[in-house]
# Entry
Amino acid sequence: MATTEQHVEEHHHTSTGLDNKKMAMWAFLGSECLLFGALISAYLLYRKRGPGKHPADLYDIPFTSVSSFVLLMSSLTMVLALSGIQRGDGRRLRVWLVATAVLGMTFIAGQVYEFTTFVKEGMSLTSNAGASAFFVLTGFHGTHVSIGIIMLLSLVGLSLAGKLPAERSLAVELAGLYWHFVDIVWIVIFTVVYLVPS
Amino acid sequence: MAIAQRENLPATSLFRRPSATTGVWSWITTVDHKRIGILYGVTSFVFFILGGIEALLLRLQLAAPDGKVLDADLYNQLFTMHGTTMIFLVVMPMSAAFFNFFIPLMIGARDVAFPRLNAFSYWVFLLGGIFLYSSFFLGGFPDGGWFGYAPLSTESYGALPNAASRMDFWALGLQILGIASLVASVNFVTTIINMRAPGMSFMRMPVFVWMTLVVNFLLLFAMPVIAVALFQVMFDRFFGTGFFDVAMGGDPVLWQHMFWLFGHPEVYILILPAMGIVSEILPTFSRKPLFGYPFVVFSGIAIGFMGWGVWAHHMFAVGLGPVANSAFALSTMFIAVPTGVKIFNWLGTLWGGRIRFKTPMLFSLGFVAMFVIGGLSGVTHALVPHDAQQTDTYYIVAHFHYVLFGGAIFGLFAGMYYWWPKVFGRLLGERLGKLHFWLMLIGFNLTFGPMHILGLQGMARRYYRYRAEDGFTAWNFIATVGSFIIALSILVFLVNVALAHRKPKTASADPWDGRTLEWTIPSPPPEYNFAEIPTVHAVDDFWHRKYAEDKSGRAQPVPAGGSEEAESGHDGHGIHMPSPSYFPLVAALGLPLIGYGLIYQWAIAAVGAMMTLVGLYGWALEPSTEPEPAQHESTSSRVAD
Ligand code: HEM
Ligand SMILES: [Cu+2]
# Structure
């Protein structure tokens, strides 16, 4: 009867035919758009304000391009993970989930390196309004990536424990939605924050 | 019969779900939307009393010249807490009480889309409120106003030990409360879009459901804006960033933009639920359908959109320049149009109706009248030269109390009297109800009517004291008397509740001859709401089951008689509801700890974060809600959580 349970959990009827959890995820991501919208606006307003060094003076565009590329690739591996679980292949699922998480961690490592270099070069969180806005915006994005990594690794754990059968692919799909969203936000940040002013 | 309860798995798992169905634990672990609705209602009412006591203290101080009840510091704390309480801890959660209890009933669903998320949002709300009020014992209430303008919010005026500030509690408390609202809005948007009974198309939804949907979309998009602004304040406070520090290139006006970009939609978040409630009550007690249902719906949606384009009318005095000021003046006058449309629809509903002046109806009529006054004084603020005179005077205080109290609170009381029998199975007394209404109406107008005059005479908002020579004495005295009449009316309400609850539960399923689905099931509703999920054929479906129209368009009872408890033959056998859970509370408990930690000691924050994480993992790993259903009905559970 375990299948009946699944049936109720994942394929229950809804007015729109769209799963409740997916709808909720879309609603949440819509809300996140405003969160990042507000952070980006504050940055654009402040980027050159206040004394001292500003973010645009210090950007290392080639470096950030590479780490952006790494993050973009992680969307690809995420798609592969989803197709893994949809085919009922737990091993493939785990391999690609771990790959996604590793790419995410590489991006975070790049961000940590970037932040420390900026601080060494004399621009910290408290240098001026532009720097504050920069660190808070990119730091928020980094936090989102980190939460995503925790989600991915939790899924790996579930799968290892045998609690992630193909019928539960929705869980991976939801994590994927979130992950892709965070990637897209980064493309916007990279374009608007890093590339446009230079 | 026993099967229609929330079940739990055998005691084998670490994550066994709790099973108490009575007593305190059953309330603490409940995931039933009706119980959560009651929790929301009771809690917000307690905060209403606290906020009211604060208001009375303010009024006592202002009753006569050279008031000596409060000093300036305490006055600041009390008006800050009064405003913060009334908005974030009273009107919003009291509206949420109605959403929780009635949205599933009105759309013909067994529960909300995510019952445990629902419980989580309640606990976060309660704990956020307690967090905010705990500041009193730790150095004083926040004292920078409910709008927290920088630098009132970024510098430590009321300094606490540890270089902390009272406004830390404000910023963190609102952040926590914002999480509750955001989570709830995701839940309600999903519930309304996805869980409607068969046949209930969008244009067949009750207006209250529509307004709830609009409000929750507003919350979804407004909460992140204030969240970012509060984060910026927190970063300025805790880490010395320069968002609002002019020396570092920051700009306090950015705070005002962000605050009001949230704040103006927020006023619609506060008023639209009351508008929805009144749009249910007026038709019921006029025995006519709502006049122009599509107009009411679309004007509600229009308000939802236009509410984003008017925020700077709160900032005419900042000096944004004539172009910005004119643009926002214009957009503000435009938004008065859909609001006016609604008023005409309500009047049209009354027109030619067979009106019954029961208490809910009186409060609804009071709502319409007071809201019109508040709306008209609002339009006068849209004229920039007028606003230059009125802003930050008692004229504004009068305006927003007519809207928030005369509007939102009257509407919420209307809803309480209307739906009390459905929630508790008992009708509130009519005589005491009417006494409550008249006392409140009179007291309200005595309190806030004179404030228009005081404002025009030049009495500034947030004066904590005035002199006899200022000429404000008489009207202030009247206002204070009025506020005590309001307090008396609330006492009458409490007596009414106490008396009603000494009587047995005798309310019928449909005491008012209602129009919407919640009246088709017993009062109070069983755990599973609908034994059989209804199928809907029209707006006001229940009414059409009971009445047909004769040649002149008047309602005539259907000969066969729409049975009152149409579908009560079913005992709920085979319906499985989600089991209770500890984890929403565990996850919520971590949040205030994080707050204290940020203010006092990082270690506490770490403990809080761990607690929330444990709660979330427990939540995700908890066994599924459905323990091997013996028999699986097609309509059984549509609840996923
Ligand atoms: C017994 C009923 C009430 C009385 C006597 C009352 C009285 C007052 C007074 C005297 C002030 C302070 C004005 C000042 O010095 O600036 C105030 C402010 C305020 N009130 Fe009320 N009020 C009542 C109910 C409400 C309700 C029901 C709401 C909202 C739903 C509300 C919302 C506010 C807000 C937002 C402020 C502004 C606080 C600030 O300036 O930071 N009040 N009220
Ligand atoms: Cu406004």
About this structure: Confidence is low (pLDDT under 50) at residues 1-11 of chain A.
